[in-house]
UniProtKB/TrEMBL annotation, chains A, B:
GO molecular function, one term: DNA binding
Transit peptide keyword on record: no
A GO BP annotation: negative regulation of DNA-templated transcription
InterPro entries cross-referenced by the UniProt entry: Bact_HTH_transcr_reg, Chorismate_lyase_/UTRA_dom_sf, Tscrpt_reg_HTH_GntR, UTRA, WH-like_DNA-bd_sf, WH_DNA-bd_sf
Upper classification of the organism: Bacteria, Pseudomonadati, Pseudomonadota, Gammaproteobacteria, Alteromonadales
This protein's name: HTH gntR-type domain-containing protein
Organism, scientific name: Pseudoalteromonas rubra
Amino acid sequence: MLLYKEIRQYLFALIADHPELKKLPSERELQYTFRSTRITVREALIRLEAEGVIYRQNRKGWFISPPRLKWDPVKKVNFYQLAQEQQFTPLTQVVSFETTLASNVVNQAFAVQSPATFHAICRVRSLDERPVMVEEIYCLAAQFDDLASKSLEGSVTTIFERDYGINVTHERSSLVVTAIPDDKADLLNVNSGALCLKIIRQRFNQADKLVDYNIEYWVHSAIEIEVDSQ
Amino acid sequence: MLLYKEIRQYLFALIADHPELKKLPSERELQYTFRSTRITVREALIRLEAEGVIYRQNRKGWFISPPRLKWDPVKKVNFYQLAQEQQFTPLTQVVSFETTLASNVVNQAFAVQSPATFHAICRVRSLDERPVMVEEIYCLAAQFDDLASKSLEGSVTTIFERDYGINVTHERSSLVVTAIPDDKADLLNVNSGALCLKIIRQRFNQADKLVDYNIEYWVHSAIEIEVDSQ
DNA sequence: CAGTGGTCTAGACCACGAT
DNA sequence: TCGTGGTCTAGACCACTGG
């Protein structure tokens, strides 16, 4: 068997046999254990990372992945509630709030005639202290006056409804597997180029007008999507 | 800027500027161009691969990814129709058909009392000659007598309906990002450990009985999920 | 056959983390 | 300060693809 696959197997068994384990031996330790080189050891680690079995935090080491958060994008369930039902301690942090012009993609999504002013919210969500998702939310500044003064840690849809009387009636989501952009990777404390599930959500009101445009980047090993249909 | 990021940038621009390009220069060519080493060149290539911009075929080289197939798992649309609407030439090949005992996972999903006999179909689906998905379909042999004689390149749900009078009324899907198992990677002609979107679909009849259990592995750069809800 | 990517060795220096 | 992962060099041999 190939050496890096042997190392992968060894680590895989190590993790299975020690459910209490949180962190793997260092790359150099593994290198000595297998009388190999860091390149080969890293090949095995990166493989396990792709599988979702382990993850790394920048220069801190390699850690065992906790169970994935199961999430149904169709059902309207609160992030907090969902996390708690699955025995996680959730946390949302607002990283930034700006009222500014936005990218072409956002302008096109809102079908505005000329570049409009948007609120841009950036938030990070964590499970048990581990950042797992970073998102950007865009909505029309003209439509949501004084949004900055609201408490933006919870559901923005609820704020839209309760404070502005604007109801989301349907939404369109798009999911792709890709690499996290570098600025988002920093916020999640993961390595540059880490894998993610990128979800773009467009929420509409009953007049079919876009209410908000939302880009979520999920750490790939942290989430499992579950959908019931028909 | 880091060298591998420079190489990534160079290739990214190369691809953007040459829409007709199908294949990248070889790793050794890039190594000489940048007076660097294969390790560093590969770092850049693997990054672009994670982003979904390029893909490799085993020992053949690195290729530019075509557009992703957009697919709504909720709508019941034929794979052929969907592909053709998006200007792809679709193809389905049956790799194997077995009538046999199945894994514990499958037995549990069907909630059978004792290990049952299943039909196990393995198929590969391609777009424009590029294999993009491999799937395993399990259904109870007792329920679908003589299934082997049907033409299994199309929709199995249609066969269940038309030939056996069994209708699928609802389904449950689960999506995770992970690495393709080695035996499936061979069928897709991708490198061992390649990224995939793994979709498990469980289709039920109106009595809430499981009709079939389906595991799909999609090449991650080949698919984009689109869902409308509510 | 030559050319490709797949695997592997044996080092090096750096930035950042924990202490 | 020391240990960690992040980046990088300069090679090597192998399995497989293509002409």
